Please model this.
Amino acid sequence: MTRFALRAAALIVPLLAAGPALAHGGHTEGFGAGLAHPLIGLDHLFAMLAIGIWAAQGGLPRPWALPACFLGGMAVGIGLGMVAAVPPLEQTVAGTLVVLGVMVALTARVRAGLAFPAAALFGLVHGSVHGLEIGGAPLATTLGMLLASAGLHALGFVAARGLARRDMVVRASGAAIASVGVMLLVAG
Model:
């Protein structure tokens, strides 16, 4: 296998391997359940990868700060979802996929002053949905979710940086992410 094919597979295989899990089941509880959730929820899997890809291609002075803002927003959102009456946000979560996918597909360069708050807001939305579903062991479940999300951000970042010379593959992944968002909006 060529080096390009390996890099493309590193980006595309996780996107295709997600299977039919369309959104959320209830969380059981604990670290393992939290760790698994971003990997089995199609909307979250694609969003986490998209944030990493966007960070890699966004031309930001501190690209690591984009995923950090998302994770911070997600942590706050989880807390809000556990304690407040948050309205159902599944359609909004799907909408974030459309926006993130388009940003990646267009290789949008957004100033840090707008990109970081947007990432935090997207994280807040995703986290709120998570918080509504956490049963017991909220701290351990949250830590698992945040760790898995950070790993997916890193995977998206590394894959996009590795494929920087193959811009069309990265852009196509953005189009695929946006398409999943549209599919979830229509299905919802």
